[in-house]
Amino acid sequence: MLLSLALIILTGIVLSEMALKIGLPRIIGMVFTGIVLGPYALDLLDDSLLAISLDLRQIALVVILLRAGLSLNLEDLKKIGRPAFLLAFVPATLELLAVIILAPMLLGFTLLEAAIMGTILAAVSPAIVVPRMLRMMKEKVGTKKRIPQMILAGASVDDIYVIVLFTAFIGVHDTGDSSLLAFLMLPLSLVGGVIIGVLIALFFVKLFKHYHMRDTGKIMILLSVSFLFIAFEDTLHISGLLAIFAMGITILASYNVLARRLTQKYERIWVFTELLLFVLVGAAVDITLVSSVGASALLLVFGALIFRSLGTFVSTYKTKLALRERVFVVFAYLPKATVQASIASIPLSMGIDGGDTMLAVAVLSILITAPLGALLTDRTQKKLILSDD
Question: Cβ of 84: how many Cβ atoms within 10 Å?
């Protein structure tokens, strides 16, 4: 495993810097590193590392959401209001509906199979979107109109919403129970996650104010509690990811000084976790599957993206954003990677009909949208959105 980690770090740094030199986002070099080193190309990564790849990617996602929560001011969130709420649900819902409509026609899926694939494709990648929005906030680009804050809040909930729907559809397929109970659990899961996250955060704020502890210790405690949220989310029927996000926001609102210090610590951790996350996402991408799905899958991916973009554009209707700024939000909401790499293989492993096609289409979606979304976001950021300075 040590050799694999060395190859990931060294090759990842080299290829990410090469990508930067030719004007591409660094993450493209990282994903390409994973594809090249992974089991579907040179096969240089140790099986023991690949066996825990999903857990390592989950850890990286926890770091992302904690960092995002600790950076998102609650007052900003209140002022953003309607568009942030709509961005959390409307684009993903329209993309899901597009797949439900198109997949039976293009790939011969049943409606339930199409719904499962729709939830695989519909989630935006927080690993691509969140760091870019945090950088915009740090550089004060678009913060007066709260554009990065709006995208950050919407994207952080978007993937949680889609993952919960995916779990519900998989449950319906597995049990044959098409009752509304599984879907009624969605709002309860979201609300439960927020409540648990807020309560735990308030407890830690009191603890950290009364008992002196190094910030490194606080980081370790918050990470451990976040892992517990994920581990027990099925038992507690809550969204563990949303609990983590809510915990971060509450700490910022209640103990601003500590939140700022912790954010700096998480930024240092992110340097390594970002590299590990995207290399492992690349390693999970089976590029040999892409050739098997054909033009129909390509039409499906782009058709779904059109519906998603329409949903993003509608979500920012009647806001103070200029047309060019609304177009930027559409670009920022395109990339897929993290969630797709995490859940796309589940239907195949469960023996669901069309599971291999679902995985292949998800791979195609990552290969198209991750570089496209990241590139458009990076290249148009300062052209479409003026600096606040």
Answer: 25
Each residue of 30-85: pLDDT tens digit? Answer: 888 998 999 988 999 999 998 888 788 788 878 888 888 888 887 777 778 889 88
pTM score: 0.82
What secondary structure does DSSP assign to 336-381, as a single string? Answer: --HHHHHHTTHHHHTT-TTHHHHHHHHHHHHHHHHHHHHHHHHHHH
* Residue 112, C-beta contacts closer than 8 angstroms, at least 6 positions apart: 169, 172, 173
Residue 387 phi/psi, 5-degree rounding, is -65, 150
Kindly state the tokens that stand for 113. Answer: 């199979």
**Mean model confidence pLDDT for the chain:** 87
Summarize pLDDT for 233-266 with one digit per residue, the tens: 878 888 888 899 899 999 999 999 999 999 888 8
Tokens 């990564």 belong to residue: 45
Q: How many domains does the chain have?
A: 1
Q: Is residue 24 part of a domain?
A: no
Q: Which domain holds residue 68?
A: 53-384
Q: What angle in degrees, to the nearest 10, is found between the helix axes of 53-69 and 215-231?
A: 120
- Residue 223 CA to residue 61 CA, distance in Å, equals 11
